[in-house]
Amino acid sequence: MTIQEQAQQLELLADQVPTGIALATKSDLEDLQAQVLGLLGETSTATSIQGAIQLAAQQIDEVAAALENVRLQIRDAAQHHLQG
Predict the structure, then answer these.
(1) Model-level pTM?
(2) Could you give the dihedral angle defined by the CA atoms of residues 47, 49, 50 and 55, in that order, rounded to the nearest 10 degrees?
(3) Hey, is 84 helix, strand or coil?
């Protein structure tokens, strides 16, 4: 495999990093949060559930950033091969 072919393969791999999954999951959680509020109103139970959802959303943000970092590192490796 040539360096050019390796770079192309790396670009394809970078596109396979599942960055969208984390963001879609966060969106689903935000929808759940709104539904909980709609069902329970401003109650202590709703507040507790919303706190758990917010914590999960923060963790998803961290996962999304880590996945984006993986994608960028693979892309950087592809560029490095092309400049080689």
Answers:
(1) 0.83
(2) 130
(3) coil
User: For the segment 41-58, what is each residue's pLDDT rounded down to a tens digit?
Assistant: 999 999 999 999 999 999
Q: At what angle do helices 44-83 and 3-16 cross, to 10 degrees?
A: 170
Q: What's at 66, amino acid-wise?
A: A
Overall size of the chain counted in residues: 84
Neighbours of 7 (CB within 10 A): 19
Encode pLDDT of 14-40 as tens digits: 999 999 998 899 999 999 999 999 999
| Structural domains in the chain plus CATH codes | 3-83 (1.10.287)
- Work out whether the CA dihedral 34, 61, 19, 22 comes out positive or negative: negative
